[in-house]
């Protein structure tokens, strides 16, 4: 897929990995729809539009199917098309399992997994009609390995991998593709809060001995959007952390 003049929705794109992905697609000439629970800062819109593309702000709570449907309808009304959807929005709520309430578990599942489902489902009918479209879902290496204190997050990200494969199989007959990216430890505001001791322990486990950059995740998203013969796959961006 040539990304010039295509329309790309990136959920959770007002900061971090999501913003890096939105900017990377803009550099390829794609028009961008940024999304978050609240309106995007003007600086985000300006940064994307500095690439001489159009940027729309569509705030919506992805856990609300009606809000998601309204967002997708608005995108088609404004842009007339939707070519690539990057399901990046997600949360964490880490606790040891014996201290994790049902609400703690459900909150993460509803945002990370059900939210991804809501966005994909709302896009399917118009994409099926166009017989074209690409989904890129943000999983995590934690969905592959599990982790202490992250049962809810691990379950949500493992679920995204299974959802990705199912969507890929169902949608292939209509010309759609669906893949996932599983980042490892990426240098973001979240990892910046870790102590030096914790970071040192993490780096011991990473063969490349460094954290990943948000742009390295973004480039994987570009690759998956452009390559028309990849579907149903999960690409890890983790410095070798989970190699087998």
Tell me what you see in this structure.
The structure is a single chain. The protein has nine helices and seven strands. With 244 residues, it is an alpha/beta fold. It has a single domain, classed as NAD(P)-binding Rossmann-like Domain (Rossmann fold, 3-Layer(aba) Sandwich), CATH 3.40.50. It has a seven-stranded parallel β-sheet, sandwiched between helices. The longest helix is centred in the middle third of the chain and has 29 residues, at 102-130. The protein is globular. It starts with 6 loop residues before the first strand and ends in a 7-residue tail after the last strand.
Q: Please provide the count of β strands.
A: 7
CATH superfamily: NAD(P)-binding Rossmann-like Domain
The low-pLDDT segments are none
What CATH calls the topology is Rossmann fold
Structural class, judged by helices and strands? alpha/beta
What is the domain total for the residues? 1
Second rung of CATH, namely the architecture: 3-Layer(aba) Sandwich
Number of helices: 9
Give the topology.
Blueprint: E1 7-10, H1 16-27, E2 31-34, H2 42-49, E3 55-57, H3 65-79, E4 84-87, H4 102-130, E5 133-138, H5 142-145, H6 151-171, E6 176-183, H7 189-192, H8 196-205, H9 214-226, E7 234-237
Parallel strand pairs: 1-2, 1-4, 2-3, 4-5, 5-6, 6-7
Domain Ketoreductase: 6-184
Binding site for NADP(+): 88, 153-157, 186
Function: Catalyzes the NADPH-dependent reduction of beta-ketoacyl-ACP substrates to beta-hydroxyacyl-ACP products, the first reductive step in the elongation cycle of fatty acid biosynthesis.
